[in-house]
Amino acid sequence: MANESIRDPLKDHLQTPENRALIRRSAKALMIAAFFLVAAAGFAQEPVVGVANPESLFTDANPKLNANKQATLHIMKDLLQCNHWDEADKWLTARYVQQS
User: Fold this and answer.
1) Which residue has the higher pLDDT, 8 or 21?
2) How far is CA 26 from CA 10, 17, 20, in A?
3) CB 19 within 8 A of CB 13
4) Nearest to 72 by CA among 55, 84, 87
5) What would the pLDDT profile of 28-73 be if each residue is shown by its tens digit?
């Protein structure tokens, strides 16, 4: 029963009309800011669009880069998509290191 007579000064301070109004304004401002942050995230990214000829992305004027891009294309298409692992020696060498 002795604890009933102890008052919490912070609770009394927060319950004044001025402070309740300040808390409401702060909460509204925080909710508006959160809304704009969430809404902005929806506009921050463009949708992924495919290209008409994806194989054209695997070519280059530099012969070394072209060879690397062609090897990458064939690894993706022949080995990974079509599962022609019997042709792996055409595109993978002993120096190949699996990263995952």
Assistant:
1) 21
2) 18, 14, 10
3) yes
4) 55
5) 999 999 998 888 777 777 788 999 998 999 999 999 999 999 999 9
* Side chain identity at residue 57, one-letter code: L
Do residues 88 and 79 make contact, with C-beta atoms less than 8 angstroms apart?
yes
Q: Backbone phi, then psi, for 16, in 5-degree steps?
A: -75, 150
Residues 6 or more apart from 75 whose CB is under 8 A from it? Answer: 91, 92
**Per this entry, what is the length of the chain?**
100
CA 15, CA 1: separation in Å to the nearest integer? 24
Look at the block and give the residue holding tokens 């080995």: 79
Mean residue pLDDT of the chain comes to: 85
